[in-house]
Amino acid sequence: MIRHVIREVRADLIASPVQTGFQDATRKVETVGMCVIRVNTDQGLTGIGVTYHEVGGEAIKEMIERYYGPKLIGRDPFETEEIWEELFHYARGVGRKGLSFCALSAVDIALWDLKGKIMDLPLYRLLGGNKKKVPVYASGGWTSYDDDALVAEALEMVRRGYKMIKLKVGVEGGRNIRRDTQRCRKVREAIGPDIGFMVDANNAFHSGDAVRLANEIREYDILFFEEPVFADDIPGLRRFRQGTDIPLGTGEHEYTRYGARDLILGEAVDYLQMDVTRCGGITEMLKVIALSQAWNLAFAPHAMEHIHMHLVSAAANGAFLERLFLFEDITAMVFKDAPVPEEGILTIPDKPGLGLELNSEFLR
Ligand SMILES: [Mg+2]
């Protein structure tokens, strides 16, 4: 095997304003964006890494180009464990979470893309998997929609072949449980009994109200209830779990194996939803997955389905992927050939590494 040496690292920032101003229980989405990184080797291969942002994309790009990128020059892309540890400690005083961790995640993903390309293996196979087809659920249903728009989007998801859908709860900032209950009833009546239905409160409630809502909507057969309380309120998440038999999804705001450990030891999660483009890349996510397996939890990562498809395919406890309708346009622009789910199934391309090709015309 020819040895590759990293020669160049560059990052591009894509940001697109959200005109219609989608809103969930706790925030308005003003911008969606990605930071795309390219790591070039002396043998002419390019590894692609990606992370995303609503706020602070410029800081991610700066962190990659000015601080992490130069540390990669001259390195062998197979040294992922070594490089991860080095970058983690390099920035640990300012960056064990948040934007700098999004940057570190993108760097690590690019190295794994390179490893796959050098080995001429799709990443899911390099990780030990063999499933080419991964279930994916549709995700949207903002709290800023009126009831008709909410039901219309749910029906559109079903029309497009999705077997599972996830919609937001927490209208009026989480202060109107009666309205949330009505909205869930209307959706369940519209989609019928056979579609999986999840809800996401985006940190809206305190645990008492979250339990009240869970008990109200239990009859609508909820597959899981996501982020009922503030993501860091691990005791609140535990109280929620003790108050309902609807499984709890959380983790999209957690970073590293340490974040996973705290959720797990706090008995605060059933579906672990950590996000590889934030939580530390593939290197760290493999450890997170191992922890989730040791506690017999489901692994159901947040968004970024084109990266996560490899991990959900390879992980024995991989449940399904999330496809955020909000990101469909930007994903289609950034990548030439990102696979689109059919009948609620994403098929992983038969290409080495991530199997994705950047649309360099668009990036220019
Ligand atoms: Mg969520």
From TrEMBL:
Q: Which SUPFAM superfamilies match?
A: Enolase C-terminal domain-like, Enolase N-terminal domain-like
Q: Which cofactor does it need?
A: Mg(2+)
- Give all residue intervals belonging to the Mandelate racemase/muconate lactonizing enzyme C-terminal domain: 147-247
The record's Pfam families line, in alphabetical order, gives: MR_MLE_C, MR_MLE_N
Q: Which UniProt keywords apply?
A: Magnesium, Metal-binding
| Biological processes, Gene Ontology terms | amino acid catabolic process; carbohydrate catabolic process
CDD domains tied to this protein: MR_like (cd03316)
Q: Which InterPro entries match?
A: Enolase-like_C_sf, Enolase-like_N, Enolase_C-like, Mandel_Rmase/mucon_lact_enz_CS, Mandelate_racemase_C, Mandelate_racemase_N_dom, RHMD-like
Q: Which protein, by its recorded name, is this?
A: Mandelate racemase/muconate lactonizing enzyme C-terminal domain-containing protein
